[in-house]
Every structure is written in C-alpha cells, then in structure tokens.
Amino acid sequence: MKEIIKIIEKFKSLEPGVKCALATVVHVEGSSYRRVGARMLVTENGQWEGGISGGCLEGDALRKARMVIHSGKSRVVTYDTREDDASGIGIGLGCNGLIDVLICPIDRENPKNPIAILEACTKNRQAHVLITLINWKENKTLEGSMLSLEENADSFPFSKEIISPAVFRVKEKCRSEILELEQGEILLEYLPPKVHVYVFGGQYDSVSMLELIRFAGWESTLVCNIQKAPPAALSLADNRINKRESFSFPKTDNYTVALLMSHDYETDKQHLIRILRETDIQYVGLLGPKKRLVKIKNDIALSDADLQRIYGPVGLDTGATTPEEIAVSVVAEIRTFLSKRKGAFLRERVGEIHER
Fold it and tell me: N or C end of the chain: smaller count of CB under 10 Å?
C-alpha cells in the first residue's frame, strides 16, 4: 500500500499535460524480487516512482513505458531471467524467473483511470479485488483497463458471475491470480488495507516503534497521556487518543493489531481487558518479561481464546536489546503473524519463499 500511495502522490504532483504510463507486474513464474501487483509510474520525461524489481528491470521498463506513452497503446512485456544468457536480460540478475509486466498509458482526463481506481481503494479499510484486463482479444482498446469489483460492477465487459468462483478463491486465500476467459486474460489482484497498529503507551521507546511502523507504510494510533508523551511520538502517530479521556474503539479488522507498551502493569492490564472485551483484534502484543503475562493470568480470567490472541513477550527472538532493535523484532513478528508464517530462517524453509 505504501508504494501505491507514493505513486498516487507522484501522479498528482505532475504538471498539467505531462503524459505517463503505469507498469504493473501481472504474472510471475519462478523467482522474482517483486511479486504480482508491484508497480512503477513512468512519465514521458523519464521520471518514475515505485519499482517492478530490485533495480534490474527498471531501466528497460522505463524505455518501453516511454514507447507506450508515445503510441498510446498498452502492451505486455515479458522478462525471462531464468537463463544466464549473455544476449538476454537475465544475465547476472540472480532471480531466475519469468515476469510479465503490463504497461499501459494513463488518460489523466479519465476519472476511472487505473490511478484513480487505486486511490479509491485507499479511502477505506476494506480488502479490494482489482480486475485488470490483459491480452484482451475482444477489444484491444480495453487492455490495461482496471476495474474495482466493489465499485465498477456495471462496467464489466463480461458477466460478473463468470468470475465469481475465482473472486471467492482470491478473497479466501488473500492471493492474486490470473483468470483466462474466451475474451482474454484478467488479473484478479488482492489488495489488502493498510496494517493498522494501536500503540498503547507514550514512553520514549514508542518513538522507535512509531518510526518503523511509518517506514513500513502502516497506519498507527497512539493511545497515551498526550500531555506526557514525547513530542516526536505525537508527530509520528497518524492518530492520537488521550487515554485520560473516555474513548471507544472504532471498527477493527483482520489487519488491525495492538501493542501494549506503557511500562505500567495496571495500565497495560486495563487496556488488555478492554481490547479483549471490546474488539476482535487477534494480535495483542505485550511488552515485558514472561512474568508479566503470568501475573495477568493470575489477576484476570482469560479463556483459551483470549490467550491465543496475546503475544507476550512480544517480538521475535532476535536478541534485540535497544528500542530500535526491539521495534524491528516486534514489527517483524506482526508481519509474520499477518502472513501466517513461522518467522524462521529462510534458509531452513522447505519449498518456495512465496506461494505460486
């Protein structure tokens, strides 16, 4: 989501009349640094935002994007990095994969252009399924068109029922896929909302935590005594709630997590009780030693379901000692939890890093 927001900001900052194109990874076989949905906005004067690889393909994609801008026609470019052929683009890249990149010109006058569709998806905390037409044989002018399943159903150039089973799979697995129809191919892209982290506690170490949360492109809400919190923490938080005043939790979702790090046992305990009773947040990180969680278990009645939601001590076992290192450990554990992974060394993983 962070990359999408930066692309939107870049698009809005363009001078009137400047033409641009959007390059999107739509298919990957084998290894690739970036996955389906990676994007790169390119302008006719050679500026760009985002990326489709680790820097290996951007130069060639930049040239081809400018050709697309000039022609006004979308195209799919295939990069085969599986062979170390000195005459091919794969030489020395190390990814050993096949990557299809859809490059389409952006009509800045069209209120439903792909950038506008992406921006609409950032306006709410909802998981979206984006539909992008690829190799559209029925009407080549539609290639590169992007539709939002939630907002553009009436403009589909096919029956919505045809893709319903695939859409269900994408939503259930939270994973994009290519669907082949008689008219052509479409990318069904799963686009989750931003991760939203509630940080309970305004001590000095909350600054490092909020810095890393912002760097990851996530959203944060700081709950603390506003009058005593470090100014840096207040400026880093996207939202602020004064715990000295009564407040109610807004609607939460599967991408909402909470961190209890007030360094005060009673404060953390009261916040924990509220989170467990008033929300369905499934990840509640508790900063502190194991004995803190043991004490909480003795003080309040916790069901097995409650205990499954509490991660204490919070963070992966990295040996972190400083606030900055601890923040890395915690954010890594949150990413691990949301990805339904184990957080082990990748060299010990059996099989591919990413599901195909």
Answer: C
Cβ atoms 79, 28 nearer than 8 A: no
d(CA 2, CA 216): 7
Distance CA 340, CA 3 (A): 22
- State pTM to two decimals: 0.84
321 CB-near residues (< 8 Å, 6+ apart): none
Q: Which residue has the higher pLDDT, 343 or 138?
A: 343
- Mean pLDDT for the chain? 85
**Does the structure show a pLDDT above 50 at 169?**
yes
Q: Which residues pair with 22 in a beta bridge?
A: 41, 104
State the alpha helices, DSSP H only, in the chain.
2-13, 58-71, 114-121, 160-173, 205-215, 231-236, 265-278, 290-299, 304-309, 323-338
Of 129-143, 181-195, 325-339, give the lowest mean pLDDT range.
129-143
Which pLDDT belongs to residue 211? 97
Give me the mean pLDDT over the 199-216 stretch.
96
Residue 271's identity, in one-letter code, is H
CA torsion sign for 28, 32, 38, 42 is negative
* Domains contained in the chain, CATH given: 2-191 (no CATH), 196-338 (3.40.50.720)
Per DSSP, the three-state class of 92 is: coil
Q: Cβ contacts of residue 223 below 8 Å, gap of 6+?
A: 198, 199, 200, 201, 241, 243, 247, 271
* Local structure of residue 65 (DSSP, 8 states): H
Cα(99)–Cα(61) distance, integer angstroms: 12
Q: Residue 154 has what pLDDT? A: 61
Place of tokens 């919505």: 160
Asked which of 5-9, 162-166, 254-258, 331-335 is least confident by mean pLDDT, the reply is: 162-166
Reduced to 3 states (helix: H, G, I; strand: E, B; else coil), residue 211 is helix
